[in-house]
Amino acid sequence: MLRVAEAAYRSDPGRQRTANEDSYVARPPLFAVADGMGGAQAGEVASRIAAESFEPADRGEQPAETWLRTIAEVANDRIHNLSREDATVSGMGTTLTAALLEGEEVTLAHVGDSRAYLYRDGELKLLTSDHSLVEELRRQGRLTDEQAEDHPQRSIITRALGPESEVDVDTMTQSARPGDVYLLCSDGLTTMVREDRIAEILAGTSDLDAAVSQLVREANEAGGRDNITVVAFRLEEAEEGAELTEATLIGPSAEEAGLTAAGVGAAADTRESAPVQAPARRTAPAPLRRRGRTIAKVLVGVLVFAGIVAGAVYGARQVYFLGTDEGGRVALFRGLPYELPFDIELYSEVYSAPVTLASVPEDRRESVTEHELRSRDDAVSLLTDIEAAATEATEEPAVQPPRERGRQQGQDNQQRQGGRNRGGGQNRSAQN
Asked: What pLDDT shows up at residue 341?
């Protein structure tokens, strides 16, 4: 049996952000990092909901992977529903990377581009795979590791909690050993400090608190372009030392609310938080008394129509097409290139490339304007080729820089105008 011998955690707004939209959980044997997005205070709200979804966390008889996946799915429901009900947080989302120690195993749950690492025997190993555009291109062999590290679109994520009504959560379980150090972090660390340097810092001190503080400090010294959150814990044999049982939940506003290691217990009793359990199945209302065959026929017709609409919406979300965004940039859209009455769009923008349609060679522009429906991989491949062709065609393309991380997403959604070549929605061209 293993236990958490030491834990350390820090969250810092960085040098270029005034607000901290990260949240984290450090409650041995459970740890998590959430990196919010959406602009204004929306990102902070989303990451806090994700962190609070662990409080309380009723597990019952669920296996560790199922339990962590359920927590992520419940958090996704809460964030998605709130963003639809409250225009001030429309489009918000968050990453989530969580770790749970049980027996001699560590189970991870992961969505987004926050990361989990294992430091063992002097080597640092990445355990999670970023859900990002650049990582997809790297896995396809279209980018080298070096190109991916400095790519201007490396912060565009393809999966997060909140933007969609459903989310795929990566889970995994691996054997742990005494002396293992697990490190969870937001990308505010990994975009500023290289992995070999992270390993050096962990190797250079046996004090995790000192190591975590140094990681945050060096991320700031490298520019601190984003919020920086680091959570680390070291394992030992269960019979050694005392078990760490102190409960800690900290988010961007936690210290002001008294949610510190000493105050979280009392605060949790009064904080509104939905219990963590499997999402409730929607059940049909109790049968109504018959009020005539006409009413029954109308209800059947409504249900049939609703089923048709639901099927169409689901089918639309499986296809992609290219078009242009509001700034004239070549963009990838998800759905069908049509609009219904009352400005109802059947598509949403996934991300924009840093090239305008005008900079694309004329013989390639039709690939953008014809709106041919494609699979995701096919559409991403085509967009990459078009971007390369546009870059070769001109030394200085007249393009606007790619929008910052999808944390502007909430504002984009509100300002977005209808149009066949435009869309808004889930992408995170980021502001983190």
From this structure: 64
Task: Give first-to-last CA distance, the chain, whole Å.
Answer: 38
Q: Can you give the pTM of this predicted structure?
A: 0.60
Helix (H, G, I), strand (E, B) or coil at 115: strand
Residues ≥6 apart with Cβ < 8 Å to 164: 76, 80, 426
Q: What does the pLDDT look like over 115-132, one tens digit per residue?
A: 999 999 999 999 999 998
Q: Is the peptide bond before 178 cis (omega within 30 degrees of 0)?
A: no
pLDDT at 32 over 60: yes
Backbone angles phi, psi at 386, to 5 degrees: -65, -40
CATH class of 2-270: alpha beta
Model pLDDT, residue 336 = 81
Q: Cite the beta strand spans of 39-114 per DSSP E.
A: 93-94, 96-102, 105-111
The predicted pLDDT at position 40 comes to 57
**DSSP output for 154-210:** TT-BS--BSSSSS---EEEEEE--TT-EEEEE-HHHHTTS-HHHHHHHHHT-S-HHH
HEC readout, 202-242 = HHCCCCHHHHHHHHHHHHHHCCCCCCEEEEEEEEEECCCCC
- 108 or 17, which is more confident: 108
- Supply the DSSP string of 246-267, one letter for each residue: --EEE-TTHHHHT-STTTHHHH
Sequence ranges of the domains in the chain: 2-270, 320-415
Under DSSP, the state recorded for 68 is H
